[in-house]
Write a structure and sequence with these properties.
Elements: H1 2-57, H2 61-85
Helix pairs in contact: 1-2
Length: about 90
Amino acid sequence: MNADFGAVAGETTDFMVRVGESMLKVQSVDLAAAHSAFSSLVEQGDRLTTAFRALGESKGLQAQNLIRRECEDSMLAFAAALARVKGGEA
């Protein structure tokens, strides 16, 4: 009986190690994806802030028009990054 228990316990331990390794791989992928999504969100937030700051400081009409386009583009990029962080697609 003890021999059978030892064999099962030995196999179970090996199985549990494999399950644990598999779970760690999945968590690692999930963490990498989350890190990428949050990094993108921060980058797009910085871009958005910079664009609006430049709009407030711009003097010429042509410069303001170019910066407005950058503001619009950066708002769309920020919205897409935010959607990815929330778990959806933009």
